[in-house]
C-alpha cells in the first residue's frame, strides 16, 4: 500500500501592508486551469495590482487558442484571481546547492535518469537531478514514493550530497554535477504579495462568478521598479537565441539611453509569440511596467525543415497570420514597434529540426509583406547587416545560425541599438 506524505507547516507572521488602490479586474477566469501542449501550463503567470481589500489580483499568463481555430481564444491571458482565508500561500526559492542548509530537512527528490530511479526504488544510493526542500515541515508521517520521486528526512554532508532517512534506513544521495534544480518552499501569508514582484503557479476553482485560488506558489522576480532608471524610456526585446547572442553588446550600446529588458527565455516561433505576448508584456498600464519601444522577431524556429523541400515548421501563410496576431497585441501598449528581420541560415543543417540555406529569404519577404500593412512599424534589417559585413565571413562558411564571437555580437548589438535610438527619435 502506498504511503502518503503529511507535512505540518508553520505560517509566518508578517507585518500588515496597506491595500493596493482600487483597480478594474474584469478579466475572463473560466479557463485559468485549462492546459495546452505548451510549457508552462496556464496556471503559471505574473501577479499585478494586488488589492487586499477585495482579496484579489490581476494574473497575466499565456493565451490559449483553439487548436483547430487559432483566431478563437479559449483561455485569455489576463485574469482576476481571488483568495480566501483558506488559500495556502507558499514561497518558492531556487538555490544553487545545499551549502545554506545547516540542519536536517524534509525533502522531495526527483530522479529523471531511469537507472538512478531504479536504484532509488530499491533503496540503494542514487543521484538526483531535482530536489524540493520544505523549510516549514515539522514532521512526516509515512513516506511518499513513486517511480521517480521519494520524500524523507535529509541531512546534507556537503554542498552536493547528504543522507536521506527513509523508515530508519539511510541512503546516500548526490545531486547531478551539472545544473541540478534545487529549491526551497516555505509558507507565507497574503501579505507577501505586496513585498515584491512575483510569478505564481496557481490552482483553484470557480466559486460563483469568481475564480478562487486554493494554492498559490510565489517565486520572486527582478523588480524593474527598483532597478530601472525612472528618467529613461523602457525597451522590450522579444527574440530567440540570436537576441541572447547580441544582448550584452546591445545593452552596453544603449547604456544611459534606455532601460533594457528582454523576454524570459526564448521567443521561439511566431505561434509561440501569439501565445506568450501578453505574458512578456506584463501589466503595461501599471506605472513602472510600461513600454516605450518593442523590438521583436520570430523566424528561425518557423523556418525549420527536416530536409531540402520538406515543409516548414510554420507554413508561410500561417507565419504571416501569427505575426499579425502578435502585432495587434503589441500595438495595445502604445510603444513604437521595430520588427527585426530574421538573420541568415548560412548552410544546410540536418536532423528533424534542421534548417536549409537561405530559408530566411522567404520568411523575411513574408514578414515585410505584413509590415506594409503597419506603416508605423519600423524595420531593423539585421539580415542585411550580416550579409553585408565582412565580420561574418567565417560565420557564412558554417551551418550554425548563432553568433558566438565578440566582434559579431558587437556589430549586431550596435545595429539593434541604432534601430532603437531611431525609434526613440520618432517618438519626439
Instruction: Could you tell me the CATH topology label of the domain at 224-427.
Output: Rossmann fold
CATH H level of the domain at 224-427: which superfamily? SGNH hydrolase
SSE ordering: EEEEEEEHEEEEEEEEHEHEHEHEHEHH
Query: What structural category characterises the helix and strand content?
Result: alpha/beta
Helix residue percentage: 10-25%
* Beta-strand content: 25-35%
Placed side by side, the strands forming the largest sheet appear as 1-2-5-15-14
Mean of pLDDT: 88
Q: What is the name of the CATH architecture of the domain at 224-427?
A: 3-Layer(aba) Sandwich
Give unreliable regions as ranges. 1-24, 26-42
The helix count comes to 8
The total of beta strands comes to 20
CATH class annotation of the domain at 224-427: Alpha Beta
Shape: globular
Radius of gyration: 24 Å
Biggest β-sheet description = 5 strands, mixed, barrel
Note the gap between the termini: 70 Å
Brief overview:
The chain has about 425 residues and is an alpha/beta fold.
Describe this entry's structure for a reader.
The chain is an alpha/beta fold and 428 residues long. Among the domains are: 98-179, no CATH class; 224-427, SGNH hydrolase (Rossmann fold). The chain is 22% helix and 28% strand. It has eight helices and 20 strands. The chain has helices at 114-122, 224-227, 241-253, 270-281, 316-331, 359-371, 382-388, 406-427; strands at residues 44-51, 56-60, 64-65, 73-75, 78-82, 88-95, 105-110, 126-128, 130-134, 149-156, 161-166, 169-175, 181-188, 197-207, 210-221, 234-238, 259-262, 293-296, 336-340, 378-380. The protein has a five-stranded mixed β-barrel. It has a five-stranded parallel beta sheet with strand order 17-16-18-19-20, with helices on one face. Strand 18 (293-296), helix 5 (316-331) and strand 19 form a beta-alpha-beta unit. Helix 5 (316-331) packs across helix 6. The chain is globular, with a radius of gyration of 24 Å. The chain starts with 43 loop residues before the first strand and ends with a helix.
